[in-house]
Amino acid sequence: MFSCGGVKYSFKGISIPPEAKTISVVYFQNNATMANPVEAQKFTEKLRDMVSSQTNLALTKQNGDLQFEGYIADYSVAPVAIQSTDQAALNRLTVTIHVKYTSKLEPAKNFEQNFQRFYDYSSTKTLTEIETTALEEINRQISEDIFQRAFNNW
Fold first, then answer.
1. Shortest CA distance to 44 belongs to which of 69, 21, 17, 80?
2. For labelling alongside 109, which of 18, 73, 102, 122 has CA 20 to 30 A away?
3. What is the CA radius of gyration of the chain?
4. How far apart are CA 109 and CA 149, in angstroms?
């Protein structure tokens, strides 16, 4: 079996520099005016869980070889489907997360961008009724998008 130094290894289809040993996901702050008070914590935990379960890197609180940081930039609800005059059939919860990714080992792969996902729900339900389920789905999707962007050159 041959081995080449400096070659990236692939684990579950992802590409990580072989020298990388640690990864940090700094607590994502809430900068959105309307966001659920626990959203920042829930999103941070979701991203931490994803990098822990899908890489062999040790999770550190800060200054990892690879680092994620950012904030909740927007959290809003708006009607998306009108069923009759002045009444929405569907509402949409939209969450935007601003992410900065830094690789101490491959600075060319650093990025800073917004990731946005939404969840549509019936106007017969309140935000409070669907918010837990909606945020679980949105946070999963955004975490996957961030992970793909950082480790699959998405």
1. 69
2. 73
3. 18
4. 9
Q: What is the pLDDT of residues 117-148, one digit of tens each?
A: 999 999 999 999 999 999 999 999 999 999 99
Cα 102 to Cα 135: distance, rounded to the nearest angstrom = 26
Sign of CA dihedral 11, 17, 22, 25: negative
**Ramachandran region, residue 94 (left: φ > 0; alpha: ψ -120 to 50; beta: rest):** beta
| Residues near 38 by beta carbon (within 8 Å), at least 6 away in sequence | none
Given CATH 3.30.1450, say whether it is the number of domain 20-72+97-115+131-151: no
Q: Is the pTM of this model over 0.70?
A: yes
Pairing of strands 66-84, 87-103: antiparallel
Domain chopping of the chain, boundaries: 20-72+97-115+131-151
What is the distance between the alpha carbons of residues 154 and 145, in angstroms, rounded to a whole number? 8
